[in-house]
Each structure stands twice: as structure tokens, then as C-alpha cells.
Amino acid sequence: MDSLIGTLRANRRICNLLAAVACFAMIGYALYTQSHDALDPCPLCIFQRVGIAALGVGFLLAAALPARPPYWGWIGTLLVFLPALITGSISARHLYIQSLPAGEVPACGATLDYMLDVFPLTDVLKKVLTGSGECAKVDWTFLGLSMPGWVLICAVGL
Predict the structure, then answer these.
(1) More confident residue, 105 or 146
(2) Within 37-143, where are the H helices?
(3) What are phi and psi of 139, to 5 degrees?
């Protein structure tokens, strides 16, 4: 087992590719639950999906970067760190909204498609990140954690 871990550490490309596969598997599972279990994503869920997809692309790009000169390693780190940080922040916000008592949850808003059609992108981002009633609903749990909780764990872990 130690030799396997040492080999994976030595070969960053394999690690980056495995992490990218994990990201795309998460997206695949989210799409599966949407179509098979009829779990419609709220706007924050959609942004988390975009963040995980960006994280996966970041891992793919990091795997493609050359090992030398050394500054490429920093670029690869940024390609992974920034999407993970943003996705983790959105997930944490989503968990906060889900933890609010029923009387403090904001009212349900318009759908993301409608807001993108009507408002400028900056306004849509502000409205979505403040959350709404549909974001407070917990439809799915595994081991006591909702999907945003697992997204947060995976974004930080990856």
C-alpha cells in the first residue's frame, strides 16, 4: 500500500487525472439524481455543479502541464485551488441556508433560467448567492449529510 501511495505521489499526472475522473463522476451522479430521482437542482446546486466541472477541467489542465520549469507547478495549483475554493464557498453558503430555521429562510425566487434572461449576470449572481427557499429544502442525504455537504467535503478533499 505504501509503495502505491509513493508511486501516486511521484506521478502527479496520474493523481490529477484520477481527481478529474472523481469530479466528472460527481457531475454524472448529480445528473443521474436529477433525471432518475427527479431531484431538480436549485440555483446554488447548479453553481456547485459548474464549480465541480471547472475543478475537473483544472485537474485535466494541471495533468497536461509540464513538470519543468517549476513555475508550471504553481499554475497547476492555481487551476485547481481557485475552483475548489469557490465551489467550497458556495457549498458552505448552501449549507448555511439549509441550517436556517423555517421562519428565517428567504422566500423562493424565480428560476435561474428566467433570471438569466431578465437580469444582468452580476445581479443574477448576487440573487443566487443570497439563496432562496428552494435552496433550503433538503431532498437527498447520505450518512446524514445533504448533497452540498458532500460537495464541500469533496471540493476541500480534492
Answers:
(1) 146
(2) 43-64, 71-99, 112-118, 121-130, 133-136
(3) -100, -20
